[in-house]
Prior knowledge:
Elements: E1 2-3, H1 7-13, E2 26-27, H2 31-37, E3 40-47, E4 50-56, E5 64-65, H3 70-83, H4 103-109, H5 120-124, H6 139-144, H7 148-153, H8 169-183, H9 187-199, E6 205-206, E7 208-209, E8 212-213, E9 219-221, H10 223-234, E10 238-239, E11 242-243, H11 247-253, E12 271-272, E13 277-279, E14 289-294, E15 298-303, E16 308-314, H12 323-339
Antiparallel strand pairs: 1-2, 3-4, 3-16, 5-9, 6-9, 7-8, 10-11, 12-13, 13-14, 14-15, 15-16
Helix pairs in contact: 3-8, 3-9
Amino acid sequence: xxSGRSANFGRECGMQTTAGTKEELRLGKDALGMLEKWSIQxxxxxxxxxxxxxWSATGDDRPSAVLSCTKSVLSALIGIAIxxxxxxxxxxxxxxxLDESDPRLADALRDDPRKRGIxxxxxxxxxxxxxxxxxxKPYRELKRSDAPAAFVLGRPLAHxxxxxxxxxxxxxxxxxxALERASGMSAAKFAxxxxxxxxxxxxxxxxxxxxxxxxxxxxxxxxxxxxxLGRLYVxxxxxxxxxxxxxxxxxxxxxxxxxxxxxxxxxxYGCYGYHWWVSPQDKQPGPDYFFAFGYGGQYLFxxxxxxxxxxVRKSLEGRNEAIRSRRLFETQLLPALRQG
Length: 340
């Protein structure tokens, strides 16, 4: 067995780790080979608020891009805004929070009246119905647009809103824009005040697009800080004595609302909630869990039944290579957590 936080583990990997403690997580003897062979760059595990493993290929834990894990952070911010009454609720139409006086947006909405009925919940669950080819193909063009809301809502409706899952980071951008208009501040500032600040998260970097924070993929954050979001959700949105995210929002977010990419092979995805992926118990050994996922194998796993969270980071080697990070979690980290 290997102790994930021990000096011996670090020496064998040729990398630095934190000092061991009695709470260290003990991994199987094949864990070392997985880290090297699968280009894993970092692993961080906590249970019941205690750090049980922290390992980094570089020996540090600097903020780095978590790509689409950003969506789960954005989901938390939307829940906070709803809890504060800045946004009425998930069933509100997104257009109520956009600038319809912008002629470009007005023109984008003109071709189909159903677009005005697209809700916040439908954007959170990727069921807006907007035409958005598989695996986010229009996203690069969106990033270059000087009118992102008009670009996204200018796409034709391919399906009735609420009916069909289609992964769409453009919907995340609409949510980020809506959050900024509802709160009167940038999403980054809103996060610092109402999420990052209370949790002691920072420093972070969060890129912007025209008209708003890059809501679907722009966040850079350390492993320990990303794990705090997971711990917050394990604790039902409560941090110390403060209810940071409404408890009902945490529950709603982690509820599978569409089968989404549950049957995609390899199994890097799952069902989908409110900008969180969900893995039901019958899809893996062990309890239900939900997770934030970023391209190529950036994961934040949340296992409420075990009071556990795990962050795994991986070098970018392609979409399907993300399965390496998930297998590390399911074959090494999750069994060790279940053993206590």
